[in-house]
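Progress note, sequence design subtask.
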């Protein structure tokens, strides 16, 4: 009996992106090509992240502070790899990275092809975890330029609400390397097969459970939180009169890893404001907003805990921080209700 096409076909991310593009007759292919560019960067970074551990073990290759140097090298390596994968293509007009104080306008040789996209990214979030072999990630956010019409982009092109994102996603360098992204047509996960150097569709149309089994927060900050946050976390820990059931605690301390586990299994992640970090720790434009786009597209929710959805927060600064509560829809709604009662 002939095997069905589905049984025999291996769907690479390139094929998937092309098929997604065909759903949009107006598409020029530039976004697809930008996503391919990011796939290439992801493969290169993944290879280097894997080798970093070897360098560390071998030791004599590096200096005594090879751990810190490798991490710093890796952060900069990841930053440069993404930047070099996109800046020559004429598809982007500006890139902004956690590693650079200012956005980097992209000078396009042929001005007529000045890029229409803006790329914001965290090249290697959680890189302090490399030394202990904990998963780390790259996070990216893509907007259409909206403040300038041609030539290099501007800071204003970068300061857009998350709701305006064209695409967003992350690469998780974990037990396997996964790329998870959305263009507003659902969330799709691809696993890198290093033997062929291809991202293969492994998790089509990811949907997050409405109620999570996990809550993820650094409880060492408890005494610095506002009473409302203490009440929310206490309810996730112990249950709350049937409004919410007690959950299991899971906190890796590496944002992309925590978010991915909760996306797949259901859960709620919190990085609230506290007395030491009145705006929270995480960055809005290239951490919270892209992850919020992905999580919302998978049926979840993301709020700042101050009454706004993350995707509706109007940015004023490139590296501004935001409190973040993100994950399973009903859990985030519970947190939002309790915080509203506490205001
Ligand atoms: P804390 C890693 O340094 C990071 O930026 C995120 O990846 C992670 O979610 C958070 O900080 C952990 O912060 O204060 O719990 O160590």
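Output:
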């Amino acid at each position: 009996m002939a095997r069905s096409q589905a049984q025999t076909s291996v769907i690479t991310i390139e094929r998937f992106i092309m098929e997604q593009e065909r759903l949009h007759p107006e598409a020029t292919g530039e976004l697809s090509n930008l996503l391919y560019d990011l796939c290439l960067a992801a493969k290169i970074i993944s290879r280097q992240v894997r080798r970093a551990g070897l360098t560390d073990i071998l030791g004599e290759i590096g200096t005594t502070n090879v751990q810190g140097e490798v991490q710093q090298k890796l952060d900069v390596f990841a930053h440069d790899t993404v930047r070099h994968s996109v800046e020559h293509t004429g598809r982007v007009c500006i890139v902004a990275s956690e590693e650079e104080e200012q956005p980097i306008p992209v000078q396009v040789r042929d001005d007529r092809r000045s890029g229409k996209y803006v790329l914001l990214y965290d090249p290697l979030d959680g890189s302090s975890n490399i030394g202990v072999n904990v998963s780390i990630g790259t996070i990216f956010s893509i907007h259409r330029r909206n403040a300038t019409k041609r030539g290099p982009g501007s800071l204003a092109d970068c300061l857009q609400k998350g709701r305006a994102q064209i695409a967003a996603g992350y690469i998780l360098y974990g037990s396997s390397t996964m790329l998870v992204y959305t263009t507003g047509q659902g969330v799709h996960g691809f696993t890198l097969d290093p033997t062929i150097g291809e991202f293969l569709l492994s998790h089509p149309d990811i949907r997050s459970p409405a109620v999570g089994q996990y809550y993820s927060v650094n409880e060492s900050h408890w005494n610095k939180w506002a009473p409302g946050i203490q009440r929310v976390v206490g309810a996730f820990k112990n249950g709350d009169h049937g409004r919410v059931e007690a959950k299991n605690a899971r906190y890796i301390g590496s944002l992309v890893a925590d978010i991915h586990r909760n996306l797949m299994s259901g859960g709620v992640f919190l990085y609230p404001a506290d007395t030491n970090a009145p705006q929270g720790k995480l960055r809005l434009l290239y951490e919270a907003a892209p992850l919020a786009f992905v999580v919302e597209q998978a049926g979840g929710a993301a709020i700042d805990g101050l009454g706004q959805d993350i995707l509706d927060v109007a940015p004023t600064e490139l590296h501004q921080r935001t409190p973040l509560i993100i994950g399973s829809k009903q859990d985030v709604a519970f947190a939002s209700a309790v915080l509203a009662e506490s205001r």
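The chain has a mean pLDDT of 90. Work on this subtask will continue into the next period as scheduled.
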